[in-house]
Design brief:
alpha+beta; two-stranded antiparallel ribbon; two-stranded antiparallel sheet; about 130 residues; single chain
């Protein structure tokens, strides 16, 4: 069986389309910029540390509002919706920032009114 060999051709008189340094490969980039692209694509933007911060943030919100959650469920057993919000942003330093939010209704109140019909063209007789 023939052995396959990978080959990279570098044109020393061709500039890199990204940094301008002479010595571009078939992709138009020099070896340095090609390496940066490869490692940049493989690097996780949201890695294990950010995921742990997300989990900790949401868990902290749930424990912080445990009493209110219990009260809401006690007032309306069997039906409690808790909305959790998670925002992942980036700081000026290039690090990830995690913010969380929680929302639920403590006392269930639902009330609808009857529809009111309004005709702006009709004159008011009782003015």
């Amino acid at each position: 069986m023939a052995e396959k060999v990978a080959m990279i051709n570098v044109e020393l008189d061709k500039p890199c389309r990204e940094c301008g340094k002479m010595g571009a490969c078939q992709n138009g980039l020099c070896m340095t910029c090609t390496g940066k692209h490869i490692t940049g694509k493989l690097q996780w933007k949201i890695g294990d540390k950010t995921m742990k911060a997300c989990i900790d943030t949401l868990q902290s919100l749930l424990w912080e509002h445990h009493a209110e959650i219990n009260r809401a469920y006690t007032l309306n057993p069997g039906e409690l919706v808790i909305n959790l919000k998670l925002k992942i942003g980036i700081t000026d330093r290039g690090t990830n920032e995690v913010e969380g939010g929680i929302a639920f209704v403590i006392e269930k109140l639902k009330d609808d009114t009857d529809a009111v019909t309004v005709d702006e063209k009709q004159e008011d007789l009782f003015r």
